[in-house]
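Troubleshooting: if your tokenizer reports a length mismatch, compare against these two reference records.
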Amino acid sequence: MSVAPSAAAETAGPPLGLLALAAFASMAAMRACDSLLPGLATSFGVSTGMAAQTIAAFAVAYGLLQVVYGPLGDRRGKLRVITLAAVGCALASLGMARSHSLSEALVWRALAGAAGGGIVPLALALIGDTVAYERRQVVLTRLSMATISGAIAGQWLGGVLADAWGWRTVFVGIAALFAVVAVALWRGMRTAPAPTPATQPFVQQVGGVLQAPWARVVLIVVALEGAIGFAAFSFVPAHLHIAFGLSLGQSGAVMALYGVGGLAWALNAKWLIPRLGERGLVLGGGALLCLAMGLLAMADAWIWAAPGCLLGGIGVFMLHSTLQTHATQMAPQSRGTGVSLFALSLFAGQSLGVTLGALAMDLSSPRVVFGAAMVLLPLLAGVFGHLLARHHRGH
């Protein structure tokens, strides 16, 4: 397996802090609606399941635009594209704050997802461009701390702000955050080295990634991870609010333990990664996800959701960080394209999972979604762990 770039090249990238700030804002925007579904449903006069379309709209647009952002970042400069995406997110968040119907909200959430799709995947690709493979998973984990913190802010603080001042305040705050991010990135872009643009045509860049058998495996697995795991956790705050009567802020606080679990993983990743190895991380993550989903599916009191979310956060990021690292190495010559296809697969899977989960929620209960995930996630981890072992033997 290639270990490019060299250690000398590692100094050429933009400051990790700038990428982390952008990633934080992006994830806060993405997860903001998780704790707001009951409030959105009341405001727009729709069911909670219908309000969940705001999550799916963001995810669908986020994923679809990856076929544009990846090649564009490779050709025009990844940091430049990230900066423009932050501006777009600020404007779309302001539009969401002014929405007065579900249809209007869906448009603004889709635009926010379309803009947000140009941030985290290209930040991952930038790290892939500038950090050698042996160190990359640890550095990617540091970026994950920002994305996890952003998810916590979106889920928990979003609920708290909505309880205190209404859900529109959440999106005004997100817009202000993106404005700060855009200014910081613009200043960083002025001092960053000029990018080396890709020279392959658009179709050839995408085709070059898809021709690799291992790339196809990674893309399929991450799509299934999104459809089963990421989608299932989206319904936890609404489930806690409806089934156990928790306020939006309280539901968001419990869900924030998912992010705390991810942070616990990130803080310990430096010594866990070499000890467990990639296959051990995948299998361990699958086992924790099985336990987490079991707790959520069978809990007769909200308190059981707390360890479920905590263990789920650890499990998800053990599995996902391994997939993420392989995504940055699928196509070293078109890394932005490769990582963007990875994000496309993830969010296409998540949008399908949220859509099916919302249907199950309206017809039955989120417990059905959690129970299915309890069975399917460890199965997915086991299959990927087996394929990963074969891939390493072949290299």
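Reference record two:
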Amino acid sequence: MKKYTVSKDQHKSITLENLGEYQIELLGEGASVEIAGVFEANGSEQKEVSVTIIHRAGHTRANTTLKGVARDKGFLKFVGRIIIDKGCPDTNSFLTEKILLLSDKARAEAIPDLEIESDDVKCSHAATISKIPEEQIFYLQSRGLSEKNAKEAIVEGVLK
């Protein structure tokens, strides 16, 4: 497990580049963190990323965004958990997990979880797993892109 800590009044930007488990602790008031990760599962790859954000002090902020693409028979799993300890007022924490499936055999799981033990917090999560909507492909084709280029543009947009 890879661990990060964010101290009082410190701001960190963390880019998750490897598979595995991550734990980020916000230890002091005014601590804030931006967490981002982009992952792809190709062929028959099985990939999993687990992120736990723990707010141990009040007046802390966290924004986590995990994005991914599963191709062929690939499997991609995101597990995101936000924990807000007791006595941590004025805490904001947000988790977004987005996975795009690019074949009928590709699979994915997005598992968001919240554990809130304090009052006066703003905390939410969102998880989506989808294929490329046909309307988006049609729209880009109506603007002169081939079907292949339209799909590539949509995938690039999701991963950025």
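Descriptive notes for reference record two:
- The CA atoms of residues 140 and 150 lie 6 Å apart.
- The helical segments are 134-142, 147-159.
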